[in-house]
Each structure stands twice: as C-alpha cells, then as structure tokens.
Amino acid sequence: MTQLISLENISVRFRIYHNPSPSLKDLFVNRMKRQERHDDFSDFFALNDISLDIKPGDRLGLVGLNGAGKSTLLKTIAGIYPPHQGRLQVNGRITPLMELGAGFNPEQTGRQNIYLNGALLGYSPDEMLEKQDSIIEFSELQEFMDMPVKYYSSGMYGRLAFSIATMTDPEILLIDEVFATGDGHFVQKSSQRIEQMVAQTKIMVLVSHSLDQVRRLCNRVVLLERGQVINDGKPDEILAQYQKVISK
C-alpha cells in the first residue's frame, strides 16, 4: 500500500461559548426548552476548506502565526479532530509526536505505561514487550520503571513519553514542537533520534516555530493563515513570504 495523505475541502469547526459559566437557572431553562440560544455561542472555523495531497517523499512543514490552524491540521490528520466537512484519506501507520505522555495513567508505573501508551499508538502487548528494553535504555530511567509516574519529575515524564513514542517504525510521522525534552544531553540525543526517524519515514509533517528546523528538515512548506492555505511550495520561497508576514 502506497502511503499518502489526502485532504479535500476539509473544515474543522469549534464552538465558542460567550457565557462559559451559566447559572443553574440558565442550565435548567435551556434543558427544559431542549435548546441553546444562538446568541450564547458562535462558530469558529479553525480549518476552512483546506485541500492538500501529501505523497511519499514529502517532508512538509506547516508555518503560520499563532491560531493559523497548524496544530489543528496535524490533529485532524492524526484522527484526533474529525472534520465537519470534506474528505480525509490517510494510508499508512501514523506515528504522532505531539502532546507526548497525554495518555499516561499517573497511578501506574513507568513500565505499565509503556504498554498503555503503546496500545494508544496501535501496538499489541507482544510488540511492546519486544520494544520494552530499548525504550527503558533510551529513557535512562532503569531504576524508576516500577515507580508510579505521578512521582516522576517533568523531565523524567517527558523522557519516558518521548522514548515510547519514538520506538516505532514510522510510515507517516507527525511532529508538533517536540525537539526539546529533558537535560542538554537528552535534548541532543532526542534530536538525533527524530532526524533518524525523518530519514526513515515515508511522509513527515512538521509544525515548528523554528524556521531553521523547517528549512533543515523539510522539502515543502505550507503557509496557513486563519485556517486556510495561503501558499504551498519550496521552503525558501514560502519561508521568505512567512517572514514578511511576521514582520508586519
């Protein structure tokens, strides 16, 4: 099966409530009427009619100002946000490097969370058993693996989450600002691991505010603004355009 990502007229809508803390009376009245007043909320399109084809060999960078829709687009491709309109097709196993450790159970040990997080990534217990020793070795947390992760420092938590998420054979790699976790030694080691994964994967989509990273890792860049694609092309061309947007 050829790996690909195809988005056709994709829109993702969020609802913004103007009264986020309604009174008990308001809740009761609305429930009795079985309706919401339309002046209590408005709809916001985080993605608005986006069409993109991402093919094998593409190393795609997503750039844009805060709120442009970069992370929303990445999460839509990953299946976290279902589109309200349009057609999304993804062929290939996705390895998402974003919000690392979000699926951890703080009451369970580091070792138990290896299997829990692996299941969320689509791996069986037997597959995670094969990867367990490599994950522990890379994280450098050998003596802490049978301790509940609620006692981990933020650095330890990030190291374990990163080690699990990157101990995969990626077909489609989605990266959202995860180049620094832990101390300087681990940051260097994790950056090398990601660059190895980028070299091995069929497709990579990167969200980063570092233009140097985008220029170094990507062969194609998409500029987003207010949930829409403004331009799509070679890194030098699109990043030059984006720098003009930043300087306004």
Describe the strand arrangement of the main beta sheet, using strand numbers: 5-6-7-3-8-9
Question: How many H/I helical runs?
Answer: 8
Q: Which series of helices and strands comes N to C?
A: EHEEHEEHHHEHEHEEH
CATH superfamily of the largest domain: P-loop containing nucleotide triphosphate hydrolases
Q: Could you name the ranges where pLDDT drops below 50 across 5 or more consecutive residues?
A: none
What is the global morphology?
globular
> Helix proportion of residues, in percent?
25-40%
Number of strands: 9
Chain-averaged pLDDT: 88
Indicate the CATH class of the largest domain.
Answer: Alpha Beta
Distance N terminus to C terminus? 45 Å
What integer value in Å does the Rg equal? 21 Å
Strand content: 25-35%
Largest sheet: 6 strands, mixed
What is the total number of structural domains?
A: 2
CATH topology of the largest domain: Rossmann fold
Just name the CATH architecture of the largest domain.
3-Layer(aba) Sandwich
Structural account:
- With 248 residues, the protein is α/β, with parallel strands linked by helices.
- The chain is built from eight helices and nine strands.
- It folds into two domains: 4-92 and 207-247, Rossmann fold, CATH 3.40.50; 97-201, Rossmann fold, CATH 3.40.50.
- It has a six-stranded mixed beta sheet with strand order 5-6-7-3-8-9, with helices on both faces. A three-stranded antiparallel beta sheet has the order 2-1-4.
- Strand 6, helix 6 and strand 7 (203-207) form a beta-alpha-beta unit.
- Helix 4 crosses helix 5.
- The model has no long low-confidence stretch (mean pLDDT 88).
